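Q: I'm writing up a methods section and want to include an example of the input and output format. Could you take the sequence below and give the corresponding predicted structure tokens, formatted cleanly so I can copy it straight into the document?
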Amino acid sequence: MPVRQVNCGGVATPAIALSAICIENHKNFRGVTDDEVFVNVVSRRVGMKVLHIVCLLVALLGSTAWAVEPPTREAIEQRLEELRPADGKEPDAAAQEKIDTLQAALEDLAAKEAAKARLEDLESRVEKAPAELRELQQALSENQDDTPAASLEALESLDLETLEIRLKEASAALRRDQDRLSQIETRLLGTQTLPERAQQGISDATQAVEESRRTLEDLAARDVDESDPRHMRARTQRALAEQRLALYQRELATNSRLRELAQQRRDLLERRVTTQEAKVLTLQRLVDQRRRERSEQAIAEAVQDEPDDVASHPLVNEAQKANREMSLELLRVTSRANELVRQGLEVRRQLDQVRQLQRGMDEHVEAIRGSTLLSRILRELRQALPKVEVRGGLKDEIADWRLRQFELDRQRETLKDAEALARKRMESAAGEEVSSALVDPLAQLFRARRDLLDQLEPTYGEMLSTAIELQLHQQQLLTTSRSLRDTIDKQLFWVANARPLDLAWLLKLPDHLRTEWREGEWRHALPNHWTMPDSGALLGVPLLLAAAGLLLLRRTLERRLLKLHDEIGHLRRDSQAHTPKAILFNALLAMPMPLILAGIGLALLFGGQGVARDIGWSLAQIALAWAVVAWARRLLTADGVAVRQFYWPPAYVAVLKRWLFWLLASMIPVLLVAPRRVMPASTSIIGLWP
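A: Here is the clean output for your methods example:
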């Protein structure tokens, strides 16, 4: 059997090889790692669907219209010039329709060229992939020491200014690596959803090829000339569809290799980010050490050569104390600035992660909308969301630091002339005479303080800048995370979590139920899987004791309540306090069972493990609902507050009481199940049985 060649936008491919591409791609997807098992599942399904589509396409190749070449851009532009009227004239409706058709044909040619460029870029990446993969694997296999001794010794020999420059360079390099890592992770997410997008693209391209083929056959049957705009547009549409078809097929066939390459790049960048973070921390530690040494040296050198009577002078001691306090402040501010830098890097990493998850969710929803697999993917995305911890007090700290900057500016102006300030201090001291022996060391101490100010002011500025940036990133992270979580919850609400309840599902229901009975997740909630509660269970004891006390006082409370009801309407015994007292007594009578449930719930929540904590949280929710409904039902008894004190009709009160009972009965199952973690749809035995 001869193999017929097919022209797909300039790419000659045997017709039989088209099916082989999809079959080989289907085989390649079987090698997906366990952490991307959902991609493997989708790929196997997509492989078979694409194979069917391509088989349909091969059947269409018998038409002679397939080999029709598209018109060139020059031919279309020449035809447009012929149709355009002279200057100052408007084309009629028929001419305008032809002009619009030719302009659409030009747009199709531009789209075809863009698809061809994408295909060429893809082929170039695939060609370079083996060499890049070997380089990445070699780089990953190398045993790299993040902080070698030689490098650490070289850093320790540098001065403060050089270390600060190195720190800025390392921080900038860390940000660049984090940005590249975010881009690689986004590309990796794109490879995970590419099978579905390629399937849809192949389906649309196949349909476009068939429509353009029919259009060309219809035009040929009516003997329409090839220079006709309709004929040109049909050929450009055919060429565009063929080019896109070739692109989608090639993307599908090379997706596994490119995904592996992206994974290797991600692993290497993660290692680089870790190494760069360690380098930044090392440089920050060395910068702190250098600043501390410089401050201590400046304080010590100020009076080291002075006589003892000068060094022990009160003014000198006061100046030394102020310098030492400012030195300690510099160390504290530097440490706080470094802490803010680390927090900023962490928040920025979390923000990039949330944005990446948001992009991934959009791609997954667009690619596999309506699929049961989408439910599992969305749940995995929700579990991958970072826990956002809002660091309070940062706004107040920023305000305090800004005020401190104004105070430092004032001190700088005061210390502008150190010698004059020293003489002024000597003159203002009671009973002191101006002595050059004291002026010089005081002036030297003031100059040392000015040097500390020169270091402290830019440190405050950097800390303020970092804190403001951290605050903005925290707000963005909180807003984006909440929005993404809400979107995922909405998608999970609407997504199909189970197969349709058709006849086939009903026929398999008995087998599903038997399997659910033997292997269902509900068995993990049985008491035989529980462990003995720890000391945290003692938190439920006070509630249980309170319930026991209310049960012992129940008859006394009922007698007091009945006495209050009997006194209603009597002139001398009735008062405004009777109704609040009656409501309070009803609340106490309704509390024993909710307190028992709440006590057991707290014991399981704080003393249990695993599923026991989920049950404890559910019991706490039920206890709260039970307390409200039981209190309301106590008020609605036949001889209760509603009838005896508010004079409600007994029949109406009985109906309300009955409705409240059914309300509680319907709420208990919901509150028992809803707070627990929802089982993923992919593990639902009844809903997703193959």
